[in-house]
Design brief:
The complex is a heterodimer.
Chain A (H helix, E strand, L loop, with lengths): L15 H6 L8 H8 L3 H23 L32 H37 L1 H16 L2 H11 L5 H11 L2 H15 L2 H8 L4 H12 L1 H24 L10 H10 L2 H5 L2 H29 L7
Chain B lengths: L1 H28 L4 H7 L6 H15 L5 H13 L14 H34 L3 H15 L3 H15 L19 H38 L2 H9 L3 H38 L4 H10 L3 H29 L1 H7 L5
Classes of the chains: A mainly alpha, B mainly alpha.
């Protein structure tokens, strides 16, 4: 249910052209990619933002070694320029910057793992359905459609009842297992259009097995598309995780940006006390990561697909 | 036509069946005993009375029967529209509780979905290949669509509610009012509706605008657009054709993202304590009211499926090729 297109971007179904033009992009000169990448403003800005935030997530704890859940006696301090207090403190006297940094780690982790898992399942289902066709296709299609509308929350509720302690890993795996359907659909459609090409027939004639053909002939011809799908799933997983954290179905221990928002609302930071520095950073963090991913998606699309470049 | 809809209906029936079965599992496999927690809330009754009450509820919910029988009963009472009693609502039928919340959620969702889709698509189409619009609307669209629903809701209520005091930001209507058919009540209702609606609308708007803008660019680069241009057709005509073709993926996208929009509405309602289904879910989770949760999820599934079906119908109306294919021709 909480599928990734949810970001409602209705992810631009990557150019049918991307696959069509491709004289195997695998062989395309790496230099050409770099040439256009370094000229794409979208790609550069998005990469800069992502690298900066990743840097913050990795090295943040070294910059500000405060324990994110340690409470000192001075509640809700305003942000100041003093080192160690850049983002101020929560109602309980916890350091917002330290929380932000460790939440950012969880965000990247959930996005990468959840998005990666969803991409893997989507590819497996999409390739199989698109390449085999016939009955396999019908059955897989049905499963995909069921997963598309099933209320993920209900399933999560049942599972959470068994797992009293859930980590970020569990959340990532859960999101990965439930957000693949639209990717499977899109990849199936692409595979379908490649399946009847001459070079596939040739590969079949040479007696190669189905999986070998999929891996060596079909996948490389839509590699750019697959990568774009992964980026969108990455961003989607982050947004889903934020929602789950926010209704209290997220990880039970540890910190995340969604949990920070949840706490700031539950303890009245936003609407009774006006502690804006508590809820602004986590939102900006998620927005920056996901937004940069989406912009990068379009930037890469333009790099891979010459037709889309602005002239 | 019959084959197309027949297949769709089959998919939806299977989905509903699977989802309902998962849903049925919720109260049965939850740790702890919902009936015990229900009885525990009736403070200060004698153990015998508690035992009697517990037996009564076991009978009422049919929890003392073997599982297969429970499962059949579940479908039986489901088809009669009976979803059990709510613990959170102190024994109010779940159906009643949901029915009370649904109008609020629909009043938020339906205008938010339709208006953001319409406005986003129109804006996106305008922005494509127009440099100055592209450089203003586009970044805004990316920012909006990457915003978590609840965060936009928090920010809006903080800025427009808490700080500027333009709109109320909690509840569905003022605490000092009773629902009635008066002008005062109606305006109050609308005032409380504005902010939650705006959060849902803005996030959706960004997504549709970007989607449409990218689609139009694909279409403008395709062979038929080039051909039209070479023939000397006016730009407006080429754009019109591009728009019609770009519309189709956007309709499919609407169906794909319905589930997510609904989930977005749930968290938005929680932020605003808006008395819709989302707040009900939140309360049900907090008070471990599994029958209420079960009922709400069935309701959401049914709603999403019906909306999907409506989108299917819309698609057939908009895309003539599906109708040709249905009559057995090839597009």
């Amino acid at each position: 249910m909480t599928a990734a297109p949810g970001t409602a971007t209705a992810p631009s179904p990557p150019s049918q052209d991307a696959a069509e033009d491709a004289t195997p992009p695998a062989k395309r000169a790496r230099g050409e990619f770099l040439f256009f990448a370094l000229r794409s403003k979208k790609f550069l800005i998005a990469s800069a933002i992502l690298l900066f935030l990743a840097f913050l997530a990795i090295f943040g704890p070294m910059i500000d070694p405060t324990d994110p859940i340690a409470q000192d006696g001075l509640p809700q301090r305003h942000p100041t320029l003093d080192p160690g207090n850049w983002f101020g403190q929560t109602y309980f006297g916890e350091d917002v910057f330290a929380q932000f940094v460790s939440g950012l780690q969880a965000t990247f982790f959930v996005g990468f793992l959840g998005g990666g898992l969803a991409a893997a399942i989507g590819m497996a289902v999409g390739f199989t359905a698109g390449y085999r066709g016939g009955w396999t296709d019908e059955v897989l299609n049905m499963i995909t459609n069921v997963f598309l509308v099933i209320p993920t929350l209900a399933v999560l509720l049942v599972i959470t009842s068994y797992l009293q302690a859930r980590g970020v890993l569990f959340e990532a795996i859960f999101i990965g297992m439930t957000s693949w359907p639209w990717a499977a659909r899109a990849i199936r459609a692409q595979t379908f259009s490649l399946r009847s090409r001459d070079f596939i027939d040739l590969a079949k004639l040479s007696g190669r097995g189905s999986w070998k053909i999929i891996v060596t002939e079909i996948a490389p011809n839509m590699s750019s598309y697959l990568f774009l799908t992964f980026i969108l799933l990455f961003g989607g997983a982050i947004l889903i995780a934020a929602s789950l954290d926010f209704i209290g179905l997220g990880p039970t221990g540890g910190l995340s940006l969604g949990l920070m928002m949840f706490n700031s609302v539950t303890y009245g930071a936003a609407l009774q006390l006006g502690i804006w520095w508590w809820f602004i950073p986590p939102g900006i963090g998620i927005m920056a990561v996901v937004g940069a991913l989406y912009v990068m998606n379009v930037g890469l699309d333009e790099i891979f697909n010459p037709k889309l470049r602005e002239t | 036509m019959r084959r197309y809809f027949g297949r769709k209906l089959l998919t939806y029936s299977i989905t509903f069946f699977v989802a309902a079965t998962i849903d049925w599992l919720i109260p049965r496999f939850m740790p702890g005993d919902p009936v015990a927690s229900l009885v525990a809330r009736t403070n200060g009754i004698s153990p015998e009375a508690a035992q009697a009450l517990s037996d009564y509820y076991y009978n009422l919910f049919g929890l003392n029967q073997p599982l297969p029988a429970q499962y059949l009963n579940f479908w039986g009472s489901l088809l009669h529209g009976n979803l059990g009693l709510s613990v959170y609502g102190h024994g109010t039928p779940v159906t009643d509780m949901i029915m009370r919340a649904v109008p609020y959620t629909l009043a938020l969702l339906v205008p938010a979905i339709l208006l953001s889709w319409w406005a986003g698509n129109s804006f996106g189409a305008l922005a494509a290949r127009r440099r100055w619009l592209d450089s203003t609307v586009l970044p805004l669209g990316y920012i909006l669509t990457a915003t978590p629903y609840m965060w936009l809701a928090i920010v809006l209520s903080f800025v427009l509610g808490y700080t500027l005091r333009w709109f109320p930001f909690s509840g569905g209507y003022g605490f000092n009012l009773e629902p009635s058919l008066t002008w005062l009540y109606f305006t109050d209702l609308v005032a409380h509706w504005v902010l939650p609606f705006l959060s849902l609308f803005l996030v959706g708007f960004g997504g549709w605008a970007i989607g449409m803008r990218n689609m139009i660019i694909y279409e403008l680069e395709s062979d038929y657009s080039r051909y039209l241009e070479v023939l000397g057709a006016p730009q407006s005509l080429v754009r019109k054709y591009a728009f019609r073709n770009a519309m189709l993926p956007q309709i499919t996208g609407l169906a794909l993202s319905l589930g997510v929009i609904v989930a977005g509405a749930l968290v938005t309602e929680i932020v605003f304590s808006y008395p819709g289904v989302g707040s009900l879910v939140f309360e049900a989770i907090k008070s471990e009211d599994y029958f209420l949760l079960q009922g709400i999820f069935l309701f959401i599934i049914a709603g999403v499926l019906i909306a999907n079906f409506l989108v299917d119908i819309a698609y057939v109306i908009v895309d003539p090729r599906t109708r040709v294919a249905m009559r057995g021709g090839t597009a």
